[in-house]
Prior knowledge:
Strand 10 and strand 11 (201-205) form a beta hairpin. This protein folds into 3 domains: 3-255, Aminohydrolase, N-terminal nucleophile (Ntn) domain (Glutamine Phosphoribosylpyrophosphate, subunit 1, domain 1), CATH 3.60.20; 266-463, Glucose-6-phosphate isomerase like protein, domain 1 (Rossmann fold), CATH 3.40.50.10490; 465-613, Glucose-6-phosphate isomerase like protein, domain 1 (Rossmann fold). A 9-stranded antiparallel sheet has the order 6-3-2-4-1-11-10-12-16. By secondary structure, the protein is α/β, with parallel strands linked by helices. It has 19 helices and 28 strands. It is globular and about 75 Å long. The structure holds fructose -6-phosphate. The site of fructose -6-phosphate has 15 residues, from helix 9 and helix 16. Fructose -6-phosphate binds next to helix 9 and helix 16.
Amino acid sequence: MCGIVGYTGKRKAAGVLLHGLSMLEYRGYDSAGLAVLGEDGQIRMEKATGKLYHLDKKTEHGERLPGRSGIGHTRWATHGEPNEKNAHPHVSGEWKQGAGNFTDSDVIGVHNGIIENQTELREKLLRHGYTFYSDTDTEVAVKLVDYYLKKYQIGPIDAINRMMVRVRGSYALVLMFRDRPGEIYAARKDSPMIIGVADGETFLASDVPAILDYTRTVYYIDNYQAARILPGEVHFFDLNGDEISLSPVTISWEPKAAEKNGYEHFMMKEICEQPDALRNTLTHYLKDGELDFSQAGLDSGLLGGIRSVCIAACGSAWHAGVAARYAIEELAELPVRVELASEFRYRKLLLSPKDLLIVISQSGETADTLEALRIAKRKGIPTLAIVNVQGSGIAREADHVLYTLAGPEIAVATTKAFSCQLLLMYALAVQLAYVRNKIEKERYLYYVHELRHLPDKAADCISAKEKVQRLAAKLAGANDVFFIGRGADYAVSLEGSLKLKEISYIHSEAYAAGELKHGTISLIEKGTPVIGILTQSSVSEKTLSNMFECKARGASLLAVVSGEALSDGGAALKEEDDASEWRWIRVPEADELFAGLLAVIPLQLLGYYTSVSRGLDVDKPRNLAKSVTVE
Ligand code: F6R
């Protein structure tokens, strides 16, 4: 959601901050702002609504804000509408629009997260003579720090600690103090923040890509910890104000991994990176030709003793869970529940320490998924996280972590992280089956072999993209689209439908194919596109019949077919291939348990090309944020 950056060092801070914010644009935002402390002791700030280039223009590429330390923010509105008044940074004093960009406030801050008791705190501060110019909870937090600073005549760390004790909610709060030139202060609870150190300069950001061009040595600050940041050094403090020592971590991502590298959009780049991402992910967990999850502490003792699996995730990651359920149940014969993490906390938790909770998350910061993990941990249930972002909250809190090695994913709509999640879940299903003696060694090695071939087959799916591009041109004018499938194909339908709607803004729904007749079929009109996923031979003929039922009511059909999933129906399909309203896409043959990973690729491409042909912002669709760090 919001993006935070901070810098102190030898460079012109505003340029570094603007660059950092541009690398965080993918997180989603509707206004942006900067504050820089100049060598003349003046703090200058500027804010702008809309895209970052407005701020860039207003500050003349940062030149109007001279100074070597500063903070910046892109805001995704939660409290208060997206206007300049509500944009960050916020100040402890008064803010006047266009007042020469100077602020005489003592404390200035940017914040991600939500302060839940902001109304109560606002009233308290009003009683003590503070006035408010914005609707934001951030202004409350900044003024609260100022209040403690002055009331108790204490330093920034002590004032921040008092603030942390008093507020409820989540925050990554980054502050500058007028009387502390060159210093930045930070505090965190349940909102991501990293601090990167290089020679003579220090960077702060809510997300890795913002600092990747400058350093890969980072510190992860934990809940209820504060930091004092100086050029080239950082000091950490606990809630008592005692200095603590944290160890730096080296980020494995290459700086150029977060760049477009000649692609028009990040989404297409990330779709095309899937074969490598899949290969890297699988290879990481292969040893002597067998799967090996022992580095994550998942040995056969643990995997063999599980009674059932519960998967919790949001959005596409939840779809990966739905798809994985079929593979785990089929191979390992374990009962699997798949829960929306956003609903998890409202259900009675009928899990025991003999069960395993798996959370799936690209960002590792999705608030609801993190909360599901915490609920399970509080009940003593073993937890496993499938995560892409190293050092993220979920990765740090789960008992066991399997990393997808997809690299940074910048496009809001997930593609490569999703397919890597799916691959790891398939691999886990195979391993569970083997250690639980549900499959013989020979079968086990066959499945491992099948998994190893998925990256090359994914590359074949991508190389057929021109055909999908032609089909997308037809889809671009649709009002409603339906995706249908049975079994594992239903999971693919869910993901295909989300990919289309989130970036093309065309209404689409995914249905288990057998459900259409129970209501939805009344929505089919002449020309309504119905996309059937046909990778499962045991049910494909049935799905095909459901597609023909739609065709009889005017639908235009598109089939995504894998290998020999259709026998007789396949012949019928072939005959229809050239008919004007009938189109199909074939993906390479794979074991049916894993075919969903391939079938989803043309659907990613379909969403992408449909969005492009509608002239939309593919990488940053409206209203969406890359990581959803609030409930
Ligand atoms: C859709 C998409 C989202 C995410 C969801 C969970 O393309 O990307 O639905 O899958 O917001 O995010 P993570 O995986 O970061 O927990």
